[in-house]
């Protein structure tokens, strides 16, 4: 069997940020009636998955080592996060054209998927499987001699959950497609949301039209 060719090209951009509100369970099922939502114009997305090596000592030497995993944290910056998406992601209350935030806000569990893009057209899809977003800061500054845009940043923490096809609980999953292909993207959307990529129907996949 020929050895699979390794790919050493680095990503050059980020695109296509999707999220879905999950049912309060360990599975990939979204709430009934909820759609997979898209937020346009992501700028930066960072995922921190810290690990610490824990050591046990005996007889004046290391007897055993194990890995302890910390919280999975996601930091995302967008050109603008629409109010409609903030309401869903943060569980905000809105009445009479007013959107309000308070101590009793109850953000839902969500899953998110975004794409790292490459010059060749290849895409690496990254899924964060079950987490909660926290309220972004509100910032503003005076307009000077030149126009400057103020991006919005929002943070979240993610936990492990069941992922179809895997024996152990997972918090992050990835899938890569060559230019023009969507097979692995579609498999990741089904495993993460329990629904196909927006605009397709299962079984989905193959080549982008």
TrEMBL record:
**Could you tell me which InterPro entries the record lists for this protein?**
Maj_tail_phi13 (IPR006490), Phage_TTP (IPR006724)
Which Pfam families does the record match to this protein? Answer: Phage_TTP_1 (PF04630)
Identify the domain of life.
Answer: Bacteria
Q: Which NCBIfam families does its entry note?
A: maj_tail_phi13 (TIGR01603)
Per its record, how is this protein called by name? Phage tail protein
Recorded source organism is Alkalicoccobacillus plakortidis
Q: What is the lineage of its organism?
A: Bacteria, Bacillati, Bacillota, Bacilli, Bacillales
